[in-house]
Amino acid sequence: MRIDLHKIPQASPDDLSGLDHLIQSGTLDPTQIIAILGKTEGNGCVNDFTRGFATQTLKAYLGEKIGAAAAKQIVYIMSGGTEGVLSPHLNVFTRQAGSLEESPHWGLVMGISRTRPFAPDEIGSLAMVKTVAQAVQAALDDARLTPENVHFVQIKCPLVQSNQAESGRSSYQSMADSRGAAALGAAIALGEIQPEQLQPEAICQNFNLYSKTASASAGVELQNCEIFVLGNAAHATGDLIVGHAVMQHALDIEAVRSAIADTGQPPSQVVNIFAKVEADPSGAVLNRRHTMLDDSDISHTRMSRAVVGAVVAAVIQDPMVYVSGGSEHQGPPGGGPVAVISRLSSAPVR
Amino acid sequence: MRIDLHKIPQASPDDLSGLDHLIQSGTLDPTQIIAILGKTEGNGCVNDFTRGFATQTLKAYLGEKIGAAAAKQIVYIMSGGTEGVLSPHLNVFTRQAGSLEESPHWGLVMGISRTRPFAPDEIGSLAMVKTVAQAVQAALDDARLTPENVHFVQIKCPLVQSNQAESGRSSYQSMADSRGAAALGAAIALGEIQPEQLQPEAICQNFNLYSKTASASAGVELQNCEIFVLGNAAHATGDLIVGHAVMQHALDIEAVRSAIADTGQPPSQVVNIFAKVEADPSGAVLNRRHTMLDDSDISHTRMSRAVVGAVVAAVIQDPMVYVSGGSEHQGPPGGGPVAVISRLSSAPVR
Amino acid sequence: MRIDLHKIPQASPDDLSGLDHLIQSGTLDPTQIIAILGKTEGNGCVNDFTRGFATQTLKAYLGEKIGAAAAKQIVYIMSGGTEGVLSPHLNVFTRQAGSLEESPHWGLVMGISRTRPFAPDEIGSLAMVKTVAQAVQAALDDARLTPENVHFVQIKCPLVQSNQAESGRSSYQSMADSRGAAALGAAIALGEIQPEQLQPEAICQNFNLYSKTASASAGVELQNCEIFVLGNAAHATGDLIVGHAVMQHALDIEAVRSAIADTGQPPSQVVNIFAKVEADPSGAVLNRRHTMLDDSDISHTRMSRAVVGAVVAAVIQDPMVYVSGGSEHQGPPGGGPVAVISRLSSAPVR
Amino acid sequence: MRIDLHKIPQASPDDLSGLDHLIQSGTLDPTQIIAILGKTEGNGCVNDFTRGFATQTLKAYLGEKIGAAAAKQIVYIMSGGTEGVLSPHLNVFTRQAGSLEESPHWGLVMGISRTRPFAPDEIGSLAMVKTVAQAVQAALDDARLTPENVHFVQIKCPLVQSNQAESGRSSYQSMADSRGAAALGAAIALGEIQPEQLQPEAICQNFNLYSKTASASAGVELQNCEIFVLGNAAHATGDLIVGHAVMQHALDIEAVRSAIADTGQPPSQVVNIFAKVEADPSGAVLNRRHTMLDDSDISHTRMSRAVVGAVVAAVIQDPMVYVSGGSEHQGPPGGGPVAVISRLSSAPVR
């Protein structure tokens, strides 16, 4: 299995000039695309339509290139919010059977899956956790990956809009519930949490239960979950490898360096970094009070993306990184998983 | 009892030039001040320090004029948020025994009271409801008012900051809980709700329970509740009168006109209008979808103040009105009480 | 000429279920659509992608219904910003030659036109004014309208993004410049301003020069201007009529009533109201200080839409009205044009 | 001359409990305070009243401790904006003549000064530049510092509110103009720019002219400029030393390390770091597009503080640092000066 990753800048959510150039020049074969992970420039919260706009544009474009049915098989995950230095871009993943000249070696493999749609009152529930767990397992199977070799599980999950809401839950809160349940589903599939450990009331309450590799992003543009998993395996034939670490807090610059080191490659070989973040729910970072949770003018998910985006970008001196807000059950409270895809600097050992 | 109301523009939260002019010119005797209700230009949400800034400035100024102990007896209620056309101002209420030349007649009377401080986990609880109910009764006694003649109950109540919060409640949500419990306290004191009707789980859940005259405003600048009541009684000796109505929705312009009519005076006699508002929790106003509850960039309390501020101001062609956001248990869902103080256009009947 | 207007709610910028229902049921013939004026739920400022998202969705949908070439002939004008009670919707205008059974009478007619694209440094310039003036004249010709019978000129105009900007002009400022130049173009075409009166330095400086019927809206989603004009003429055959007035300030509720009266129809016959607004540049409304221009957290165009939206909606008790922010050279400073389309309550006089 | 720096957390703009504790315990002698530099939790833009609230609170408190006249001699500079991880705090600087036991050595010295008030139309003008230049020279004299040994010049400067504004300048823009002119004044006093190089039209236009040590912060709470300078000199007797560097861009983490190294002390000895920042006016950081200048919901100065605050805090793993937004003529476009005060790790060489 050969996985390639093309990191493509976007001038706006509907800008596909970079993707089109790669396809026109023959660098990227659109029939091989299995997933597109985008960072779009909306507010990343409830009324962020840049995610849906980018997805609609991609589907229409790829529908023309490879047919609507094939375009529909691709997993599209758009995460809103490019606060601070974060730079809007698409991560286009392609997958192909290893070519005859390539022999398998230890490196990046990838799988995808989808859940059924969820009803509004299922979002954030134990039923959602279980359904996501099954789908993550399906993605592992698709990648031929074992849990211990997984480094990143990306899940796009739905939210509840105010006009669908049951009494007392805001649409913004439903995003947190949805991300939390999705992350716990991944944790169960990966064996990080045992199903019997998980009581319904623990969801978005007991944050000591978490996954070290799950990354969940909620959006108004879908009703089900769409999933991809990244890991390393012996049947890889490409020149990419993935590593990860867990940030303990928003300024955990050492964790970013550890995640890079986990790929076995120098920082110059990094293709992209994928991190989840949140404003520390304790109200303090490194024992210093922060004001993100009491700022009624700027959502704390927006601010936390600006912070961790700056930290990650400073390490590799590249602001075109993927940082997504809201890390409920994704890493410890105030922290979050960070994964790195690097290019193998020398010919892989076969 | 003679109540006077001075409506004074402010150029900033610490601008007391208007008040000082009235005092210097002998128009306003600072020893007679019993309450100051301000509309300050912060965001009206958690991190709004304009309320505390105005209060601190007032206390220091009046402390010099009338002594710190006397200044401390005054009820200071600052409500943040002058979105749209709303114009920052102070409502300075004075009270004096009727002078010898004045005979009593039907008109405005006023009373004040305070509760004990509340612990963070009491905020929004049944204990808070009961404590507020007792304090509202004390304010009625202070005014020598009977419940059926009350037209406006203003309560300033505390909130829970994120660093004090128990798990799972945001500081923004605690403002709603606090306002809701305070309003229910008023409703019980006024006989609008029977104590046995009120279950703890109804607070901020069953919005069919509400007061028609309570107006609660939460802020970081106090830990207890401060209260004043306005009503009409036969022992009034001043030239003001109060009326009220209940807005059923944010565009209920007829209710504003009814409240004016309830004073028995023409619109030209209005001194100020006091209204509570909220973004309709159903997600629609007059069966048309609104987007306030799904806008993650602007708090819905801010937007709802802009809306009702414009409606009220348009009726009397004066944007210097008091409109406060967050009307949990204050009027029906999506609506809120509206009170009017007018000047008697002819000599009161004695 | 018969003009019809369908006012269609949208649940999101890409929701065409209402339009589709009208087309499927035969109520609306898509080949007759000449213009679609939408109010979408973005911030209405620079990074509002709801406008482009709605337009892309409409073009793709109508392209399937009537062919891409025909869909491209339609004028699409999306104005962002549904602050407060404003409700997202589309105004779909159709035009057809009067049918045999209908005889012409005084009523609504409509024309459309487009300009060439503008370079970034042309935006807000005298060259833009002149080009728009010619295009407005073309739209008048298309409608067979004379200037004195025009009631509304809608112009969608471009802006300059920060990465295209010359030194010293923000993208937000370029929106104002673009709207101002477009409105002056309309004023010249309508004879409200003589070309020789207009010096280049007057653009967005001398606001005593203005149009009483122009409404300009800037967006990132186009580089040229797209225009439609509405007026009354003797060759109308439909059952609509248009009127207008000029709001002198944000609370000019009488102007809204005048505009309704100008149609000769009672308020119950109003189909939609179209208004332009701005935060009064003097810093005061009706001699009361407002804080919109000094609020660094919420753009003043957003707040001013919430205000005027509430006022207009309160008059007709319908929040699904079209209110657009930024009224440079559109009505007097702090005010703006307001137009009303009403349905003739009885059979038109033929 | 002995300079001490106390870095004191604040729980709110009016929280002086930390300062009071130091004074009560005898650690800090209030008669020795010459300047207080605060980072308060407002929006840092026009309508940020946390600056004035903190200053009012400090003046009242210190007035009681040392008398109103002495309290008035202190330079109070409050800079708003603690976005992201930045933690609200006060930097209280004390100055005393070296005690008998201390011999002079190379280390931190400090001087203060003030300008006259500026009229609104002077703000951002060449007249302001010249007046600030003279005042910076006065502060150098007060510190007995030569320009080549200066590492940080902090200037608090006024802004123009919308109700004072001449046509066409927003209050937000006036903040930039004021900071720019103040920084150019410092640059002239320090010999970084020759007076004859500076044309009036260069102010806030030609950003190739800049100071490497100036830090200017605008606020509504004063009409003049208040200034302090930090540098090293042979007549120091305390245990602090200052260094600086210039960040070339928002992610210039090496410049932060250089500034620390410039003090000759290890990172563990850092007391505080002082940085100026801005959203890169080119629209890109390290050749990657950023969206800060086109985001109409969050001011770019707010976002840029979050970014550089995170970078600086990550280096020393302490979020209680001073980062201030808007670096016009303060460092190169997109960058800004960064200064570090460290404690001498061993006994200073005498």
UniProtKB/TrEMBL annotation, chains A, B, C, D:
Regulation: Inhibited by barbituric acid.
Region (RU C): 240-350
UniProt cross-references to Pfam families, sorted A to Z: Amido_AtzD_TrzD
Marked site positions, Important for substrate specificity: T301
Pathway(s) this gene product operates in, as recorded in its UniProt entry: Xenobiotic degradation; atrazine degradation; biuret from cyanurate: step 1/1
Binding-site positions, substrate: R51, S79, G80, R179, S217, A218, R305, S324, G325
Amino-acid positions noted as binding Mg(2+) in the UniProt annotation, renumbered to this chain: E278, S327, Q330, G331, P332, G335
Reaction(s) the record says it catalyses: cyanurate + H2O = 1-carboxybiuret + H(+)
Keywords: Hydrolase, Magnesium, Metal-binding
Gene Ontology molecular function terms on file: cyanuric acid amidohydrolase activity; metal ion binding
EC number(s) per entry: 3.5.2.15
Domain of life per record: Bacteria
Family in the record: Belongs to the cyclic amide hydrolase (CyAH) family.
HAMAP family xref list: Cyc_amidohydrol
Name of the molecule in the record: Cyanuric acid amidohydrolase
